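EI: anyone free to look at a 369-residue chain?
SC: sure, send it
EI:
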Amino acid sequence: MSWRDNLIKIEPYVAGEQPNKTDFIKLNANENPYPPSPKVLAAVREFNTDTLKKYPSANAVPLVNAIAKREGLNPENVFAGNGTDDVLSLAFRALFNSDKPIIFPDITYSFNTVWCDILRIPYETIPVDESFNINPADYARENGGVVIANPNAPTSIGRDLDFIREILDGNIGSVVIVDEAYVDFGGVTAVPLLKEYENLLIIRTFSKSRSLAGMRLGWAMGSPELISAIYATKDSMNSYPVDSIAQAAGIAAIEDEEYFQATLKRVITTRERLTKELRSMSFTLPDSQTNFVFAAHPDIPAHEIFGYLTEQDIYVRWFNKPRIDNHLRITVGTDEDTDKLIDALRDFVYEKRWQAREHALNSGWVTED
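SC: here you go
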């Protein structure tokens, strides 16, 4: 027996590559290509640093109040934490304490399995269909909880409110977590259902649509009973609240609705253009409701495209996993970065087509016209 036998044994979550250089195009982490609201920058610059000698509001009350006001909820319906991952991990610990397995799709946010392994929560994954859609009927079964990302990642597919309602109706005895990290980019929020379902918990983030990935801010919305359980877990396991500067930045981001909507419009417009260009090169991809696209080419393996783009200092995400290993997840960047991506892809696709034709000619499979 060795002390090494007592070390944790899990398959860690692997994030997108973070190159140790500055001259590259980073489209592999679903970050917003545009800066935070100018009001966020002002809030940080004007922050009274004398207050840093004191602990921040234990439950991030000012930030919680701002979120509740914006979403039309009461403060007791909101929990704010240090990033969505922090909020989700606390929710898993607080709400999934059955000996029955929790269930979630086989293709979704891969951190779900990491939390289950760390917290020793039993789980089962349910396959999405061949078009990467989730069938609500598959979730009407005995379980210890349900986790659904809507829109889903990495597939980019979003579903309507009836889809979430069907899952909730099939799970009246379980907590249903709906991860809405990407909902602002065209998805449909389940917030209206909070009045009907006390077992619904919705998770949101500041990292994507509000350009605050570097601040690590996230929040949950649900019934007071669910939110109280998460607070109790935080205070017992991780008493560190959202820091004072992050709270000030979050409040400013929440309150600047005009900038928020304008940024969303820019990302969505570029996403639609990128989708059109990719399809013109024979890529197949679902209509995205996120700030990324999930694309595959029928003739060129995804890992080859990934390798070529990396050589061009354009970083996208390739998942070497069953069912999705021929797809690339490509974050929507600025128009300039998107143009460079499109040009690089067009060059590579043309080159591969030319090589295929030359090979066919040399093999005698086709002849010159």
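EI: The longest strand covers residues 200-205.
SC: 👍
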